Amino acid sequence: MATRLRAGRHEVDPALVNILGRKADFSEAGAGRSCTVIGGSGFLGQHMVEQLLAKGYSVNVFDIHKRFESDQVTFFLGDLCDKEALLPALRGVAVVFHCASPAPASDNRELFYRVNFTGTKAVIEACREAGVQKLVLTSSASVVFEGTDIKNGSEDLPYAQKPIDYYTETKILQEKEVLSANDPDNNFFTTAIRPHGIFGPRDPQLVPILVQAARSGKMKFIIGDGKNLVDFTYVENVVHGHILAAEKLHKGSALCGKAFHITNDEPIPFWTFMSRILTGLDYDPPKYHIPYWLAYYLALLLSLLLALLRPLVTIKATFTPMRVALAGTFHYYSCERAKRAMGYSPVVSLDEAIARTVQSYPGLRRARA
């Protein structure tokens, strides 16, 4: 595929017409099946690209890195905070899926603010300038979570007044920007998808981190009574929700300027899910209980101690009040709004999702003596 590189980003040769083994269709008839995935080199983004291609979309990927090869995709490299870098990737497409974000585990507030807030404002401006009709944001159910129980929470819950981390704080700002940008009078429609606990094959976060903790002997304790229900959502279901949203998003639809929870619709005890992943990879599940209040205050005490020591030494804590809250409280969400507005239902059950995920990590399986 011929591209020419200028100023750190790809500029597509106008003569380039062969995409997906056929001529690129930028006519009015084909415009509705053309899209750009911002963050398409990431975990969710790669799965989204694969499903879009399978459905016959022509796909651009915009990302700061190129992490996979495909002659079916047109790649654009650049910083999403740079509107001029975004524009070539957005011209001629009907739909933009924005799923770029730093990993939630990061503690870099400046990076979160720059990518999730400043970058999203640039995305909105570029979409408008490029004539994009639909913008679908990957938000997060955590935008309403403050570390206390949420049971079957709806999208009508208020945004968290005390976000649990920088990721959540900036996802709130990001979602507000995207939803308020909905502008039917100018043929620009926006919606936000709020998944929770995304997992699946090729995930660089949940399973690898869980196995690392098990190997280092840190997965022996269950925080609380182990009965707290949580949503874990298979990546294919998350992608399915995004594509449904894009296809149902139009003038007068119930999706315009609204957010929607997308989950597996099968809440499961947090520690049951973790144990199923661990035992599936031949590790021992946690079996000792520690009271939730004790774990929380120990984590809080540790955080205060590290804050006092910070002028002398910087230590990144892995045992934090936020992580204790995520592991020890109820937080699961209703998908009823998505079912009504876009006909959503999970395409992969939780049992099948766990089985597929475990099978996809043969290199992390515990070696038997």
From TrEMBL:
Domain spans labelled 3-beta hydroxysteroid dehydrogenase/isomerase: 37-287
GO molecular function, one term: 3-beta-hydroxysteroid dehydrogenase [NAD(P)+]/C4-decarboxylase activity
Subcellular location: Endoplasmic reticulum membrane; Lipid droplet
Record-listed E.C. numbers: 1.1.1.170
TM region(s), chain numbering: 293-313
Keyword NAD: yes
Keywords: Acetylation, Cholesterol biosynthesis, Cholesterol metabolism, Endoplasmic reticulum, Lipid biosynthesis, Lipid droplet, Lipid metabolism, Membrane, NAD, Oxidoreductase, Steroid biosynthesis, Steroid metabolism, Sterol biosynthesis, Sterol metabolism, Transmembrane, Transmembrane helix
Gene Ontology CC, one term: endoplasmic reticulum membrane
Stored Gene3D superfamilies: NAD(P)-binding Rossmann-like Domain
Pathway annotation: Steroid biosynthesis; zymosterol biosynthesis; zymosterol from lanosterol: step 4/6
Source superkingdom: Eukaryota
Bilayer topology: Single-pass membrane protein
Quaternary structure note: Homodimer.
PANTHER family reported for this sequence: BIFUNCTIONAL POLYMYXIN RESISTANCE PROTEIN ARNA, SHORT CHAIN DEHYDROGENASE_REDUCTASE FAMILY 42E, MEMBER 2
Family per record: Belongs to the 3-beta-HSD family.
Protein's UniProt name: Sterol-4-alpha-carboxylate 3-dehydrogenase, decarboxylating
Gene name of the encoded protein: NSDHL
